[in-house]
Amino acid sequence: MIIDTLNLINRTSILCLNETDENKIIGTFTELAVSVLNADFGFVWMNKKNDTFELAYKSRNMPYTPLSPTQNGRNIKVFKNFRPDFVSTVAKRNDVYDVSRYMKSFVIIPIAYQQHIYGNAVICFKKPEKFSKEKRISCAIIGNNIAQVITILRAKHTLKEIEEYKRNMREEELRTEFLADAMHEIRTPLAIIKGTVDLALHPYSIDQSVALKAIHAEVEHLTEILSELSVLTSKNSPVRRKMQTKKIQLAPFIQEISKRWTALANMKNVSIKIQKMPRVSILADESYLSKLFTNIIKNAITYGKKNGYIKISGTVRKDMIVIDIEDNGIGISQTDLERIFDRFYRADKSRTSLENNSGTGLGLAIVKWIAEAHGGTVTATSTLGKGSVFTVSLPRA
Q1: Which of 29, 40, 72, 394 has the fewest CB atoms found within 10 Å of its own CB?
Q2: Residues 18 and 128 occupy one common structural domain
Q3: Residue 125 pLDDT > 70, yes or no?
């Protein structure tokens, strides 16, 4: 019998290791103890602080409401001596709190592990119980196993909290670095605007239409920076909430975006070829989807080699459309590749200081967010000096 009981307790412990709610673990073990000991009901007191207890669980069929343990009560003594307290006879009391009419025996099981006690479980019997040796052993094992599972659960929570704290601190550090870079980038168009205005106001000024065009271009650049800043500095991006989706034919959509970048590609003699694109539709926000592919293609041109190429192809895999954008540019190091989609991550300076790289440096984080907001994914593979492949997967309409 004791072997079967041990196996049952161990199986319960293993199942409870996947649980995240401490009170559910306590409830599961309490009902297990009631079953194993052939008792009638039970409840658990958990230590809050300085020997003050809180009722963590009670059986549904509890016939009375237990009072909080007093300093001289049995619960506190068990809490201090780490040993179960077996009571075979419940004496009748003359005061209002007479529980002898509800139970004739009970045991207080300390929930203790490695000299740390969390509380105790009270298992009650409506009939007198003599507590055999097997039941006494079972009580000790149950209390120990409850405590072990709680210890592991709290350790998991502590580790998660530590990791979360580290992530938050790292994000704050990256946020500060990123904002410093962003402020530096904002100064450049502002300086150009100021210089252009000063020239336009000079008696021997430049043509005003030329000045206005230059100012307009820098205002557009500033608007782009601030737009991307507003997305990336938000803790919870509102991308998904703001999406206005419609059916989009993918092949002509990709072709149109590619055409926009032909002029810039021609300056570096980079060819853009759409090799294969299935005639399928996707349900997406046109503006965001355009930004997603624009950022990837622009990067491919920016970091591409002269006389290089960009190849775009698509395939249908079950319910997903998979688009590969391949280039034979400078590639991305493995260190950067692991984090290029991270919020606020800045890639290797040798990559971000290339000629013609006048972007905000925020594009790939936004690419990832847009893909995920549409229920898709984006990944990248790359070899330094040979090029990169960005793969976007999106659900079919």
Answers
A1: 72
A2: yes
A3: yes
**What integer pLDDT is reported at residue 188 of this predicted model?**
65
Boundary of a domain, candidates 232, 255, 277: 232
Kindly state whether residues 391 and 286 are assigned to the same domain: yes
Same structural domain, 260 and 228: no
Q: Are residues 206 and 279 in the same domain?
A: no
Is residue 30 within 8 A of residue 42, CB to CB? The reply is yes
152 and 245 both lie in a single domain = no
Please give the backbone phi and psi of residue 338, each rounded to the nearest 5 degrees, phi first. -70, -20
Domain count, the chain: 3
CB 91 within 8 A of CB 100: yes
Q: Using CA atoms, how far apart are residues 392 and 177, in angstroms rounded to an integer? A: 29
- Among 126-130, 203-207, 318-322, name the one with the lowest average pLDDT: 203-207
pLDDT digits (tens, 9 = 90+) for 168-204: 676 566 566 656 666 766 776 787 788 778 777 776 6
- Same domain, yes or no: 123 and 190: no
Per-residue pLDDT tens for 229-240?
Answer: 665 555 444 444
CATH of the domain at 155: 3.30.450.40
Position 140, amino acid: A
| Dist. CA 103–CA 167, nearest whole Å | 52
